[in-house]
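Below is how a single chain appears once it has passed through the pipeline. First comes the sequence as given, then the structure the pipeline wrote out for it. We keep one example in the README because the format questions we get most often are answered faster by looking than by reading.
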Amino acid sequence: MQINFLACYSKYFFKMLNLIRYNHLKFSFFLLTFITFILLSLEKDNFEESIAIIGGGIAGITAYNTLKNYGYKNVKIFEGSNRLGGRVYPLKYKNGYLQLGAQFINGQKNPIYKLAKKLNILNGVENDDDFIYMGEYKLGSCNLSNNILESFTKFSRNLERYYEKLSRNSVMKEKSVGDMFYDDYKSFLFKETKFGDKIKIKKYYDALVKLYKSYYEIEWSSPIEKLSLINLDLWDDKENELKSYTLNNIGYQAILDYLLQNITDSDIQLNSRIININYSNYKKILLTLNNGKIITNYTKIIVTVPLGHLKKYGYSLFTPTLNKKRMKAINLLGFGNMQKIFFYYDKPFWDENTKWIHTLSIDGCTNTNIFSEIFQSFQPLEWMNKNILVGWLSGKGPHLIKDIPDNILSDIITNHFRNTFNNSLIPKPIEIKQKSWVSDELFLGSYTYYTPESNLLNEDPIKTISRPIFKNKKPIIMFAGEGTHPSIYQTVIGAYLSGQREAKRIFRHNHV
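Resulting structure:
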């Protein structure tokens, strides 16, 4: 506490030292008395302030740690599930952890990268678009010619960088990535199908387009038709290249353990979903739990629930209800669908050096059905002797499989692999692990993005959502989480920084 005191009032402290130096004892005594009063006031305020954090993800955990470092004593996390971590969800498996949620780190100039480096869990770096261009393509009874693949690669590889430049033009704010891509693809296709079998060539390119679109759906959690160009301008991980940092077999579990090490059990209330925050009396905010219990002793609330939860429960979660401007921002921002499925095999049926497998559904080459459309990209998990394939689902995929039991899903994926690999001997997976984010009421999706509609609002919708609710010029309800960070939303980094931001806001308004 003394460290924070000196940081905030250092100018008074050094002035006192100078006065003592020059024997201005009368003034020195006055300043010493003043500073002592401030210190006691700080300690008294921090003791009496009662703060509830709604949601135990990275934003909530970081807010808690920051407040405790400032000296606040009465801070509690209310978490609706049976665990802390939110969308950081490492699942213990064999000698490591399956990352059911966050997996990569975006950029080096942030506290999460620095923490990963400190914990010695950094493993390497991947170019984001290697997802498309470094894979093996499986098309059943057909082969993808090098000419078609090279032409499509030449056409598409730098499109995202090109669209990023376009996004800086204000007249483009109503455009989606899809608006731009379909026009560009139409022109490309016209040139490529001038000669040869147009129908045959087009079906291969169309299959590659589906894969290219899935890259955006996985990377941005958004269909390209809904992904505003402005995302490519606003989102910034301080890197010049499209790349992400990978972690070892422990991964985010090490980061989670580090962040949780100073949280006491008495300050955590698990399985306690908050269904209403009544701030009519701002000196005594009422929290209603899903079991009907009402808690009445909080003066400050930090809400860290995901945007997907706010979209469904935003009106009922607050009394008085959130204003129309904030709710409109919540409703117009996007909150997409992305999910990983881990298929464990006794031994791999893919090549040892495989980085990615892309199973393309093409009429005349494979048997096509609703599931062949959603299962497109698979990545061997290196640390498990490559016996695990990670299936990346996006778009409508997570919704289609959310109610399918594992034994049926095992049959579906086995038939899909046998079909696209053109190999009837491919075995069934021994085990399947997954987490459905779209069906979890605490999340209802994966992460945030700007839509073209949200860009038409008079104010940046993330800025609108992240603005606190004030009473008597002091914040009483604050908002944190990845969807409240203006430039690194969608990430653990954004969640961490937003939790820190709101804890600092409380301290600043109390003491500065």
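The mean pLDDT is 91.

See the next section for the split statistics.
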